[in-house]
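Technical annex, item 7. During the second reporting period the consortium partners agreed on a shared format for inverse folding records so that results from different sites could be compared directly. Each record opens with the tokenized structure and is followed by the designed sequence. A conforming record, contributed by the partner at site C, is shown below for reference.
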């Protein structure tokens, strides 16, 4: 399928939206590059779907500015913004065949019959379902319905593709397959794409960059690995994967700085840290169960273990917290028993220090 429209960027400035006294979006500022696959990530009620619908032109009018390709679209109706949106429910017409569903938007635009037929055929070929053109939606699997919803959207040749949790109705194994197909399709078309999800694995595996939202406020923007390794705050750290958070203080002891937990354990810090109340974020893979007790280890007790195939996940009570620790599984090596005393070696080079 040949796209006739150029890739366009999106600029959002100081966007605010409230439903009565309830603030839904607060001061959203965002720049999305042409051709970028961008994700809005956050829990239910964070405002991510509302932000997407604001870009599409659905729902109440927010204040601020939304520009697509430099053109302010805030006062334009959805059909004049030249965006395509795939909904969570797919929203296929149950009384129309696959071919008729895909053609619907083109017929509404009153295009010539020959062009409609050509573009529908190209769109169905693009998603690999041209052989199902005569079927009805209730004769399709969930994955096939999702592909048809995509075909119906891209057939109108939008300049921006908006995806509102399009994989949430699929089972786990099919979601993995479909997100790969979705990314491959986006790369092939080169469409500027925004993908809304509450699943951090989906966002990590597809997006060039993402924005993490909470309570209508963007908490952090960046590449998935950047946000995982360098979260701006505790919300981002906890939302993007498993995070151990130790509360304490940064103190100078002699010529060195130490992070001192509430239980009195002390861990080394680089000299660039500032003294005062702080939190340390540690990922499970950044803590090693050590056979030896050294000056920079923490003594703990195994509370629970889970066999996850390639690794064993332990919950270890240490430093006044229940820490999640991942250890590689090796054949015939038994897991540590509940109640076992262990020494934990913390990789402080991979720790994130957040000041209070």
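Designed sequence (site C submission):
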């Amino acid at each position: 399928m040949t796209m006739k429209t150029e890739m366009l960027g999106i600029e959002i400035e100081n966007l605010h939206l409230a439903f009565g006294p309830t603030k839904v979006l607060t001061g959203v500022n965002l720049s999305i590059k042409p051709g970028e696959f961008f994700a809005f990530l956050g829990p239910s009620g964070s405002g991510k779907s509302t932000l997407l619908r604001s870009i599409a032109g659905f729902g109440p009018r927010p204040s601020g500015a939304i520009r697509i390709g430099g053109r302010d679209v805030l006062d334009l109706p959805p059909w004049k913004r030249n965006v395509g949106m795939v909904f969570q429910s797919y929203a296929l017409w149950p009384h129309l065949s696959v071919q008729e569903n895909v053609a619907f938007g083109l017929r509404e635009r009153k295009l010539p019959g020959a062009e409609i037929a050509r573009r529908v055929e190209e769109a169905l070929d693009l998603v690999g379902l041209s052989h199902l053109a005569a079927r009805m939606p209730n004769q399709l699997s969930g994955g096939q319905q999702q592909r048809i919803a995509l075909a119906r959207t891209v057939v109108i040749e939008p300049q921006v593709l908006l995806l509102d949790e399009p994989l949430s109705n699929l089972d786990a194994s099919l979601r993995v397959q479909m997100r790969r197909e979705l990314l491959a399709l986006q790369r092939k078309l080169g469409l500027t794409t925004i993908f809304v999800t509450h699943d951090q694995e989906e966002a990590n595996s597809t997006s060039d960059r993402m924005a993490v939202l909470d309570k209508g406020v963007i908490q952090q923007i960046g590449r998935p690995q950047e946000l995982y390794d360098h979260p701006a705050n505790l919300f981002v750290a906890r939302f993007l994967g498993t995070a151990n958070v130790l509360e304490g203080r940064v103190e100078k002891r002699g010529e060195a700085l130490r992070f001192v937990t509430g239980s009195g354990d002390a861990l080394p810090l680089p000299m660039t840290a500032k003294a005062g109340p702080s939190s340390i974020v540690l990922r499970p893979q950044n803590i090693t169960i050590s056979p030896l007790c050294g000056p920079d280890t923490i003594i703990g007790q195994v509370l629970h273990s889970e066999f996850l195939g390639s690794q064993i996940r332990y919950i270890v009570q240490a430093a006044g917290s229940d820490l999640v620790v991942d250890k590689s599984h090796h054949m015939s090596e038994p897991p540590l028993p509940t109640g076992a005393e262990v020494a934990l070696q913390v990789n402080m080079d991979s720790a994130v220090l957040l000041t209070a």
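The CA atoms of residues 280 and 353 lie 5 Å apart. The longest helix spans residues 172-189. All partners now use this format for quarterly exchanges.
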